[in-house]
């Protein structure tokens, strides 16, 4: 089955700098890759997703890139702000009925 | 928030007692999921359902059972709760066409 590895597990950046979180997946049939943000005490919330027929997708300060050949995808957050502090999860899904999640990255934005 | 509710939101129980958590959706989605979240373990799938009376196991299904007799309700039962089942439990639905999962608000369960 699918296996998703996420790195780093913790990330600390200065406010205004960029943050990058990387995930690798094992199943070449996976074709859908969402990212979730979870603030302390809250539910995970979808922030951006990408399909395998697209190499990059942007939404304001966040972007996701996908390299199908290498089977990895990344979340990029530019001009980070204190409200970006949270745990971020990547996930992957192929024709299967469920998503497989990475272990999460705790992002801290330092003022 | 995608019309998902969970009940109860908080529960404290004792080892050996049965516990049932309820997930309710208002949007007629076919797929529903139960996860548990513990520090250092991310989101781990317990069971999921792909239709009424159609369910399957996830990666941490031991000690849990589920039922889905109506499209809108997905129940998670701990037949005899143990302290290792202390966790935050999230229900999720899967919404096409994006195939993203949308999460309920969570239930914090403490087993003493």
Description:
- The complex is a heterodimer of chains A (111) and B (112).
- The mean pLDDT of chain A is 94.
- Chain A has strands spanning 4-7, 10-14, 19-25, 32-38, 45-51, 56-59, 62-67, 72-77, 86-92, 100-101, 105-110.
- Helices cover 0% and strands 55% of the residues of chain A.
- Chain A starts with a strand and ends with a strand.
- Chain A is built from no helices and eleven strands.
- Chain A is mainly beta and 111 residues long.
- Chain B is built from no helices and eleven strands.
- In chain B, strands 2, 4, 5, 6, 9, 10 and 11 form a seven-stranded mixed beta sheet that branches. In chain B, strands 1-3-8-7 form a four-stranded antiparallel beta sheet, with no helix packed on it.
- In chain B, strand 5 (42-51) and strand 6 form a beta hairpin.
- Chains A and B meet through strand 5 of A and strand 5 and strand 10 of B.
Shape of chain A: globular
> Percentage of helical residues of chain A?
under 10%
- Helices and strands of chain A, in N-to-C order? EEEEEEEEEEE
Number of extended strands of chain A: 11
Note the overall shape of chain B.
globular
List segments of chain B where confidence is low: pLDDT < 50 over at least 5 consecutive residues.
none
Give me the number of helical elements of chain B: 0
How much of the sequence of chain A is in beta strands?
A: over 45%
Rg of chain B (CA only): 13 Å
What is the oligomer described by this structure?
heterodimer
């Amino acid at each position: 089955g699918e296996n998703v590895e996420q790195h780093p597990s913790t990330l600390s950046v200065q406010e205004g700098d960029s943050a990058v979180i990387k995930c690798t997946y094992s199943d070449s049939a996976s074709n859908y890759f969402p990212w979730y943000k979870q603030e302390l005490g809250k539910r995970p919330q979808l922030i951006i997703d990408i399909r395998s027929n697209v190499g990059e997708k942007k939404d304001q300060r966040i972007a996701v890139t996908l390299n199908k050949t290498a089977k990895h995808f990344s979340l990029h957050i530019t001009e980070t702000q204190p409200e970006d502090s949270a745990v971020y999860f990547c996930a992957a899904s192929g024709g299967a009925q469920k998503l497989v999640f990475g272990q999460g990255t705790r992002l801290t934005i330092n003022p | 928030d995608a019309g998902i509710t969970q009940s109860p939101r908080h529960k404290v129980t004792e080892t050996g007692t049965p516990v049932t958590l309820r997930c309710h959706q208002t949007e007629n989605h076919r797929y529903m999921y139960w996860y548990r979240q513990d520090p250092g373990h991310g989101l781990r799938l317990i069971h999921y359902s792909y239709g009424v009376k159609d369910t399957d196991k996830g990666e941490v299904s031991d000690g849990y059972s589920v039922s889905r007799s109506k499209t809108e309700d997905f129940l998670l039962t701990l037949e005899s709760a143990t302290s290792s089942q202390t966790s935050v439990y999230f229900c999720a639905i899967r919404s096409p066409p994006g195939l993203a999962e949308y999460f309920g608000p969570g239930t914090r369960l403490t087993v003493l």
